[in-house]
Structure formats: C-alpha cells, structure tokens
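Changelog note: in this version the structure field was regenerated for every chain. One regenerated record is shown below for reference.
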Amino acid sequence: MEKDKSGVNPEGKEPENKNLPGGEGEGTGEGKEPEKKEYTQAEIDAMIAKAKSQVKKKLPSKEEMEAFNAWKAEQEKNKPPEEVNAETLAKYKEAQAELERYKNREKAIQKGVNPDYLDFITYEVSKLVTDDIDFESALDKYLEEHNQFTKTNEEPPKAGGMKQGGPTPKLSGVEKAFYDKNPHLKQE
C-alpha cells in the first residue's frame, strides 16, 4: 500500500491495524492499549529457572575450572627465571630510586633548603646530577646560584603597629592642631 504526500492511501482508506504492534501506521497512541498479561508465581519461577539454566550453560563446569586453575599455576611455576628475575629487578630498582629520593631530600634539608621549595629543589638538582657530579655538589652549586630557596635568606616578619605598654609616640604638628580644635576627642 502506497501513501501519497498527505499520508492517506490512494484508495482513501486508513489501514485497520494502524495502532497495533507491528502495524504499518505511525500510531499516535489513540487506539487500544495492548493488554497487560498477568503471570502466576509458577510462570515467573519457570522463567527464572530457564534464565538460570541458560547462564549455567555458558559457565564452565567445576572440573573445567579446576583444570584451568591447575594449568595457570603450572604456567606460573614454569616461568623462565629471566622473567622472574626481571620482575624482581624492576621492583628492586623502583625501591632503590625511592630511597635515593628520600636521601636527596634529607641532604637538601641539611643544607638549609626552605621546606616549601624542597620538592622543587630536589627535582631541579637531580637533573644536574651526572656521572661526574654527585647530588651534594650539584646541590651546593644550585644553591649558590639560587640562594633565595634557603631558610637563611628569609627575613623575619616585620612587626606592625604600636608596642603594647610602651610610651605613646609624640604627636605631629597636624595631629596636635587637630586635637586642639577638637578637645572632646580623646587622645591616645
């Protein structure tokens, strides 16, 4: 059945199954609603049992799982010593590098590096380390060039305001004239 541009069949009739599921029409939902089927508990239990059996068919049996686990353990045992050694060596190198980082941080603290810049300084100095220059000499050289990162260069905070219980400061000429014209204001 072909439709013209107006959406009506050339014969002038609408299809009878327009709102039914699987029908040809573009149902607007104005037709009958499909009936809701009610299931009994036995039917629901049967559906659940069927779904469980389908899932169980996809899972390996207990014997297959035991065989797989045995095979996996065998593969781990039969690893070539080079692979085991390579894994162990990688872990060892990682631990050694971490220990070296901590030692370098301790050396920087002993040289008086400000704790706020500690990570930055150890990173920058570690880039300067070569076969000929160790961390301490590179740290000394770096701190000579960039001494703003050491604790000794910090200026103590300047105290602001008046000291408590001390003598009152002398009034300037402007302040004295102000208080002379405004005697009701209290001088401090």
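Spot check on this record: The chain has a mean pLDDT of 78. Residues 81-110 form the longest helix (30 residues).
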